[in-house]
Specification:
It is a single chain. A hairpin with a 4-residue loop joins strand 6 and strand 7. It contains 13 helices and 7 strands. It starts with a helix and ends with a helix.
Amino acid sequence: MSLTKKRWNGRVRGLDRTRSACWEDIFQTYTIFDGICACLEPQDLIALQRTSKQLSGLFDTLFKTQWNINRQLKRFVHDPVVLRSLMSRLDALVSGSFALQFFERVVWKDSDLDIYVEYGREDETTTMLEQHLVEAEVYTVKPPVESPPINYPRIHVKHIYKVNTYLRPNNEEPGNDLKIQVIYTHKTPLETILLGFYTRAIVNIISWDCAWSLFPDTTFIKRKTYQLVSLDSFYGNLIRKYSRRG
């Protein structure tokens, strides 16, 4: 009986039975806390975090789980740690829809993973990245595209040397292949992302050990985006795609 009582007290962090239970006590069960926070918008999480110091430890765990880059990468690769190690050696960056999904804590089934690598860095490490995707991650490489595909934003095209596309069958969704694109850039990946994107919402960047959102307030709080170039029908289709995604 005492053992059962000890476990229960540990789970609620020493609940004082001389007082009535309050809402903070409910949150001390992490599965409940995690499930509720998964449904909250960023501004609501910030407001909740400021309500009680008792929740600080729970938020430390929450930020490490709901924004877990390894878990997000697991959709595309079996071993995220190896991929991130190769990204570190290449100074590679991830951006586009994957980075937006990471901050938003969602998954869009029709999205891919874009890895930006400076073209001048095509050395032994780059070869290791390509070999890793084919041999360890069992991707099939399509013929390299020396010029970016026509469905790339035009402002993006002038900063890109070539795009290598890797495909792998998706066992969870047959017919909807997983896709990784290694995008070789003329300048550094950071310059390409900052100079080449057409709207604020997708200017989010992930390195091997950090993630940045350049416009978090407008993107994730106000849920708006602003153009970075003059728009036409081509860009309109791209923006409508993100509008459908929320």
